[in-house]
Write a structure and sequence with these properties.
- The strands form 4 sheets. The protein has a 7-stranded antiparallel sheet, with no helix packed on it. A 4-stranded antiparallel sheet has the order 4-3-11-12, with no helix packed on it.
- The protein has 182 residues and is mainly beta.
- The protein is globular.
- β3 and β4 form a beta hairpin.
Length: 182
């Protein structure tokens, strides 16, 4: 096989990115470690105040979110569609598959004549273990402004995952460089 001089062939995926063994951070008072979360993931009802905005426009507000908790991931918050301004969202092209929840569909945000792509996602027909979040919407805190009990959420590293990092969650978190093999 011919390979251009500037290209390198890799024998395995592990050559692309160094493997870092996770060293869980010890949680302090009132904190949770993502390393105490289970695999496969579980659902956890939340009564925390969730707000999602883009600038001054409120997209969602809920006290009825459901957290998905999975080892090495910050929680992902799913909001009932009744708590989301669905008129601001439009189904986006593309689908992905989660080994636990099933096929995800995405939403674009339509705001002031602009389209912000793939700000959130849903599982319309999730697997049986996740039926209770069917139709609920999760948002990427790296694409919209997400708040939990007034605290601005930090996005999970890497851009693919939608975990919400707050001061009461400790890692390290999947998505950071070197975490692909976790």
């Amino acid at each position: 096989m011919w390979v251009p001089a500037k290209m390198k062939c890799y024998a395995s995926l592990h050559e692309l990115e160094p493997v870092i063994s996770p060293k869980p951070i010890q949680p302090g008072p009132g904190q949770e470690s993502v390393w105490a979360y289970p695999r496969p993931p579980i659902l956890d009802l939340s009564d925390r105040h969730v707000v999602v905005r883009m600038g001054e426009t409120q997209i969602a507000e809920s006290l009825r979110a459901v957290r998905v908790l999975e080892t090495s991931h910050p929680p992902t918050y799913y909001l009932p569609p009744q708590d989301v301004r669905m008129a601001l969202l439009q189904e986006a092209p593309g689908r992905t598959m989660c080994e636990w929840k099933g096929q995800a569909s995405y939403y674009d945000l339509l705001l002031e004549g602009k389209r912000i792509p793939a700000v959130g996602w849903t599982y319309r027909d999730p697997t049986s273990a996740f039926q209770s979040i069917g139709g609920f919407i999760a948002f990427y805190p790296g694409k919209v402004d997400c708040f939990l009990d007034g605290e601005r959420v930090q996005p999970q590293p890497g851009g693919f995952y939608g975990g919400w990092i707050t001061r009461d969650i400790v890692g390290p978190f999947k998505g950071e460089p070197g975490t692909r093999s976790w």
